[in-house]
Amino acid sequence: MTNNADGGSGTIGATELGHTEVLPRCYTRRVAVKKISISLDSEVFARAKRAADSLGIPLSTWLSQAAEEAAALAEARTALAEYIEVYGEPDEAAMAETRTRLDKAGVGQWETADEAAARMTALARLRGQLPTEPQRRAG
Question: What is the pTM assigned to this prediction?
Answer without folding.
Answer: 0.50
